[in-house]
Amino acid sequence: MTDNITWFSGIQIVPGLFTVENLSFAQNFLMKDDDVILVTYPRSGTHWMIEIVSLILSKGDPTWVQTVNSHTRFLWIEDKDSQKLLKGPDRPRLLATHLPIHLFPKSCFTSRAKIIYIIRNPRDVATSIYHIRKYTPNVKIPKNFEEFLNAFIHGELLYGSWFDHTLGWLTRRNTENFLLMSYEELQKDLRGNMQKLCQFLGNHLSPEQLDSVVQNSSFSVMKDNKMSNSIRLKNPEDETDSNVPLLRKGRCGDWKNHFTVTQSEAFDKIYQEKMSSLDPGLFPWS
Ligand code: A3P
């Protein structure tokens, strides 16, 4: 673990993950009308949605998700490895990013590219990141949950502040070609939300094909699928590779097992202050 992190416009540059040049490539990326781009703050259900969209586009046939890694099915616009592939001619392109809106390619907003933005209860996001951080090379490991929560609240994480990310992206919520989904609603009604997604993407699936999407994107099936439940990260210090598992508990409300009453009250107060400009009805958590 090193502490040689620098900041770039509100997000952290961590050696081995991306560089300022990669961010500049992402910012100037030319979006096409038929691109589909999935945008999330980390640990909000990105890989779940990658699986769902992959299965919808395969009409429920699981072959693609069983044979091709999720990071090849969707290319990350800020990832230096996928940037080589993004220069190729493949269309339509399936893209993903954790970038906040101010670092996102402006070309998207003048194109007809479709954006899917997923939100998740920030308390569960914080809990989930806390558990995955130990696997991320070159990222400072917090001493305890209290120290980590403090960093989360102050946006001292790889992709900056959850509050800024969410507030920024939700300014697009009433625009064409923007679909807002939440981790909590996916948990509550996966099939109903898939129908919404099919409509948004312009795909029609039979009831049997939808059944297969639901089945193959379930937590238990995804957890057993190496193509969906792992990402290889290289530690630039010693060039070792590690296989990081992406699926952990897959539940709503695990934060209650981590936050103390005092931490929960303090978080609520900050949440109310920061999110006061938005209708609380937008968020399926209290
Ligand atoms: P937990 O750590 O709370 O379990 P991301 O893909 O954005 O990194 O999000 C990871 C979170 O989504 C993890 O949350 C992971 O377990 C959860 N997740 C991934 N696939 C899931 C699925 N099929 N059903 C429910 N949760 C899923």
UniProtKB/TrEMBL annotation:
GO CC terms of this entry: cytoplasm
Keyword match Transferase: yes
Keyword terms: Cytoplasm, Transferase
Enzyme class: transferase
Coiled coil feature spans: none
Pfam families in the record: Sulfotransfer_1
Entry's family note: Belongs to the sulfotransferase 1 family.
Protein name: Sulfotransferase
Organism per entry: Cricetulus griseus (Chinese hamster)
The organism's taxonomic lineage, starting at the top: Eukaryota, Metazoa, Chordata, Craniata, Vertebrata
